[in-house]
Amino acid sequence: MSTTKAGTAAADSKSFDIVATYNELLRSDPDITMPIAAIEALVHVLTHCPSSTISETLDLLEKSTAHLKRSIPNPIGLSAGTDLFQRYLITTLQRPGQLGPAGDFKAIRTHLLSNGRLFIRRAKESRQKIAAFGRGFIRDGCTVLTNGGSRAVASLLQKAADEEGGPSAVRFRVIYVLSSMSKNIEEPSGEPEGMETVRALRAKGVPVATIPESAVAYALGKTDMIIVGAEGVVENGGIVSRMGTYQIGLLAKAIGKPFYVVAESHKFVRLFPLGQYDLPIEQHVVDFKSADDIAEEKKRKQQTFDVGNGDKPVELPLSDSVDFTPPHLISALITDSGVLTPSAVSEELIKIWF
Amino acid sequence: MADSSDMAQTNLPVTASTQSQTTATGDHPTSQVTQSLPIREAKSTKTPTSADNANAKKNVAPTPSTSTTDGSTVAGGEKPLTPAELKKKAKAEKAARRAKEKLAKEGGAGAAGSPASGAPQGRPPVTPKKDASGEVWPVKKEDKSVAVFGHLYGQPRRTTIAGAGKEVHPAVLALGLQLRDYVVCGSSARCVATLLAFKRVIESYTTPLGTSLSRHLTTHLSHQITYLSTCRPLSITQGNAIRALKLAISSIDPSTPELSAKATLCEFIDNFIREKITVADQVIAASAAQKVQDGDVIVTFAGSSIVKQTLLSAHKQEKRFRVSIIDSRPLFEGKNMARALANAGLDVEYSLVHGISHAIKDATKVFLGAHAMTSNGRLYSRVGTALVAMSAKERAGGVEVPVIVCCETVKFTDRVALDSIVVNEIADADELVSAQSAQQLTGVTDPVAPSKPDNKKGGKGASNAAKPATLASDLETSSSPLSNWKDNSNLQLLNIMYDVTPAEYVDMVVTEMGSLPPSAVPIVHRMTE
Questions:
Q1: What is the complex's ipTM, to 2 decimals?
Q2: Which of A51, A97, A103, B233 is the most exposed, fewest CB within 10 Å of its CB?
Q3: What predicted TM-score, i.e. pTM, was given to this entire model?
């Protein structure tokens, strides 16, 4: 990843590149989510950089978080993790007793690090929990429409498919919306996101139909429910997720089909977008161009190619763009702390933060 | 003069019932009883006959009784009456006269409901005060309260400090009148002013012998509170602040020396104001200002200090946006805001609420202040707010127009509001009548200013002219066609203060604890309790 290397110099954490660690974590473990990778990266930072006081630790944490957020094109997901970790640190440090401000700092540090790891392990288990909660939603004979490459959705569907007592205890069908945009730009021939899940489900005997995004409205008539994943769950109970989810939500609402979101509770972000364009990221999805603009851009591209990749701001590739699905389109959120209505999300968030 | 006896009765229920409240609130310690003995007598003898009342009243509220016999002597006498009081007196006399005339005309007892007006269900059961006086004074006066809101009328706002208990601190006396006249207006301002007045009460308080501060001060404060609530019904913020203060008082160890206890309480009040209002406002303004973006057209309604602060701080961050202030009669609270924002260099458009569809057309965001947020996520705010929120949300493409409420958590209440009828506040309908000069734009902003000259004129008229009826017509015919609305039997005026905005029309509530959806109000309220 070329962009992250550029940021290395700015890293305050001596000789330790949190961004590289973060990306490495995401790449090495296909099961890891962005917030968890962020937390794990922060734990790594703390282990690598010996800090001796509380304020030093917090300062280090803040700096690395800011650096990480700056260097990643879409920091919404990971900011859930960093916020959570920071909050956890502060509450632990404020707690009276041995591990509080009065205690031995070394003890606090080791405690923090071990607990941070525990936290990561728990978060990985949460997907199983979600699957257990959500399994009841999928019943015999129903058809589920889903999209994107959410691992939480995949594990939920697979759990429903391999109920013990048969190859497929719940007989259901899946309509998988494959995004034309989510194809890897570097290798356009590559398969769209989600094909892996499709294959896995088919192997378990679940009939899967794959449709393009343009056929969603057409296919909704044959659908009983929609289940989607999310990159982040925001304070009002809406979700930030893969581009195209919003329109599925709108269509589901219009046609009156339930729209469920599957998300781990560590994806809850302290963020309150008021609409599609109020997200804290730069996206150039709607990009107006005339013929002149295109020509100019081509010229500029050539120039930058010659000069080399300068210090240009990180931009979200089109394939990774996200949209915001407002809470009134969502029937329920299936999380590891239970099945929540959108309005219960803020309650959960407030519980974490105060 | 035949009017005088009637007059005595019209005034009496007001004062007597005020006292009944005063005495009813506290379980009086002994010292209090001796102090307020005459009042209690007056209260106990209130009901039977008018003659008794007149006698009992003598030592309680001398002003009304003497003034009825001879208005001018009183005005020149030992206690100069406020213009507002004179006006009220004149009105009462007028009402009494009218009632007499009507009685003479119609005679019968059946006249109560049917013939008088086109608003048949308007009168009988809803106004307990008037009915109570009705037994001594035939129910001839037409009921001018609007039926649906009948339960809200209660007793009219206090117009004078006469009759206030002697326990009431001068600072509180003054504050009461300021609240009444909207000099102190807006729920945060009212809360702060009340707390500051109470701080002075506490500072000048000494615990009577034989009782402890933590027990007696609460009673002492409740006299002040009762007085304030007769001037204008208490706001939710005032209620919340008072509850917190009382809790702080009762949690004081009785063995604490009085001085240090008082110091603790004063500190508590200062902290409360700072944490819940001053700093909270700064936090809210900072976080709400982040939601303002370049090119926004921000619509706001009436004058909310916190919205003003938000817009000013957004302007300070050099964001380029336009503000459209929608205002309404009779308080014109938006004028202050328009002036302040325009002075700060913002682009301001000012219109009244009837121009709302025009003002809302190019809105991109709506910022609203709050009087209170109820536990079902609804916004209880100045009347007209719901209309603005709805206009924004229901217009074409309005789903994309976020409605943002800026509100301190001290305004949260555990009450639930389903409509704006059950809980509301009714102000004097005469506020709707007074005319505004046509050329005024953002100049003179004090909402009571225009009515003041009227009052003064009325006061003079009352003392000079013997006939109150002619006075009324003299006074106001030139200013407003509605000036004689009380004489018009088919006409009722409604001056309601608040309305309730459904939660669906509110996207976000910005509080000092963060931004919330309206559904999170009860959770936060539970936590801040």
A1: 0.80
A2: A97
A3: 0.73
